Amino acid sequence: MSQQRKAVALISGGLDSMLAAKLVMEQGVHVEGINFFTGFCVEGHTHAIRESDKAKPKRNNALWVAEQLGIKLHIVDVVEEYKKVLINPKHGYGTHMNPCLDCKIFMVNKAKQWIVENDFDFIITGEVIGQRPMSQTKSKMPIVSKQSGADDLLLRPMCAKNLPATRPEIEGWVDREKLCDITGRSRKPQMALAEKFGIDDYSQPAGGCCFLTDKYYSARLVDLWKAQGSKDYELDDVMLLKVGRHIRPEKHFKLIIAREEGEGRFLEGYKKEFISMHCLSHTGPLALIDGITSAEDLYLAASIVARYGQGRHAEQVDIKVRDKEGSERTLQVKPLTNEEIPKEWYV
Amino acid sequence: MIKETLNARRLLCPLPVIRTQDKVKQLKPGDQLEVICTDPGVMQDIPTWCRINGHKVLETKACDHEYSITLEVGV
């Protein structure tokens, strides 16, 4: 009896990686899933934070896919290692701050390390030729295989027939004829395959599952780097860029103002790391002040915070200012009007 | 059998799942772990993670924006 081969599948939570894993499982290969947490592939985070999103399902799609397939899923925290990918991508950024090709090379490289450590035979991805302009073109596929170090142990079941045979195919671990030849951006072949496998519930995130493909998120990240004078970040920065209104009146400080209760509760958790403000005399949002501020800066910040509370039309509003150590004082300010907050301040 | 507690407050999914996964690796079958979180997503994600990895959820609690899941480590 031949040895049962083992493969690890990169599971994003979308349909393609689900189908890729299923195609190989159908051939009797033992498949387990792997999912990398970079800090940016976190749509669920904002759902968790925002009160208005409470009705949306909060499932983690990668876990959900693994359960549908009946496979284990290993979620790997790569936040620290991913920084060098995002900060200095060898192949550059996409339309926004998305380093898609470097990201794919990085993840396949991590999967290669994982199969060596766990005695697995090969790697599966859900890549499809022509699906994504930066990382999933026919010319980019060999770059990912080579630069990740996976070489011919990287199998792309969804488009394998359009690519040179890999070791799993050559050695007969999988039957190449039972793999697919899907190309292009149409989703019809994937939907047909899903129907064939009886899969009728799946996630299809527009633009992928990464915040770095988002224009507004990317703009906030660039603003952060400009303000601090270096391309660096911590996980808390990544999280805070997703939350609230960001208003930067001066290069050296910005405000993060909660837009609703859920965001306010989330920002509460950062009161020991930032100066915070909220309105005493009227109902209003919590705001964090990111940066080093003078007395004049704090007065300006308080006038902006007042604009977003119920006292926006009042002559005077009391704003409580709390420093990181917990000392509090109150500022009396006149709220700025919409016209007094230039559009360029909004990040 | 030992019972441990993991503080995953303020962490957003999937971090509570990752921290749970890492903690469970240090425990033995039959040990219990209570994970305390503030992200409501854990009420779905940690039980799913337990099911696919062979662990048993003993209890889930939700109270005042805090969520707690107690699991028993499987074989």
- Assess the beta-strand content of chain B as a share of residues: 35-45%
- The poorly predicted ranges of chain A are none
The CATH topology of the largest domain in chain A is Rossmann fold
- Give the largest interface pair and sizes: A-B, 29 and 20 residues
What pattern of helices and strands is seen along the backbone of chain A? EHEHHEHHEHEHHHHEEHEEHEE
The poorly predicted ranges of chain B are none
The strands making up the biggest β-sheet of chain A line up spatially as 6-7-9-8-10-11
CATH-defined fold name of chain B: Translation Initiation Factor IF3
| Spatial sequence of strands, sheet with the most strands of chain B | 1-2-4-3
Total helices of chain A: the number is 12
Kindly provide the radius of gyration of chain B, computed on alpha-carbon positions and rounded to a whole number of angstroms: 11 Å
Q: Return the CATH architecture of the largest domain in chain A.
A: 3-Layer(aba) Sandwich
Give the oligomeric state of the chains in this entry, treating copies of one chain as homo and distinct chains as hetero. heterodimer
Short description:
Chain A contains twelve helices and eleven strands.
How is the secondary structure organized here?
The complex is a heterodimer of chains A (347) and B (75).
Chain A lengths: L5 E5 L4 H11 L4 E8 L5 H7 L11 H9 L3 E5 L1 H9 L12 H19 L3 E3 L16 H8 L5 E2 L11 H4 L17 H9 L18 H14 L6 H6 L4 E6 L2 E5 L3 H8 L6 E5 L7 E5 L3 H13 L9 E6 L5 E6 L14
Chain B lengths: L2 E6 L6 H11 L6 E6 L4 H12 L2 E8 L2 E7 L3
Parallel strand pairs in B: 1-2
Antiparallel strand pairs in B: 2-4, 3-4
Helix pairs in contact in B: 1-2
Describe this structure in words.
The complex is a heterodimer of chains A (347) and B (75). Chain A is an alpha/beta fold and 347 residues long. Chain A has helices at 15-25, 43-49, 61-69, 79-87, 100-118, 141-148, 167-170, 188-196, 215-228, 235-240, 261-268, 295-307; strands at residues 6-10, 30-37, 73-77, 122-124, 154-155, 245-250, 253-257, 275-279, 287-291, 317-322, 328-333. In chain A, helix 6 links the parallel strand 4 (122-124) and strand 5 (154-155). The radius of gyration of chain A is 24 Å and the shape is elongated. The model of chain A has no long low-confidence stretch (mean pLDDT 93). Chain B is α+β, with helices and mostly antiparallel strands and 75 residues long. Helices cover 31% and strands 36% of the residues of chain B. Chain B is built from 2 helices and 4 strands; from the N terminus they run βαβαββ. Chain B has helices spanning 15-25, 42-53, and strands at 3-8, 32-37, 56-63, 66-72. At the A-B interface, helix 2, helix 3 and strand 3 of A face helix 1 and helix 2 of B.
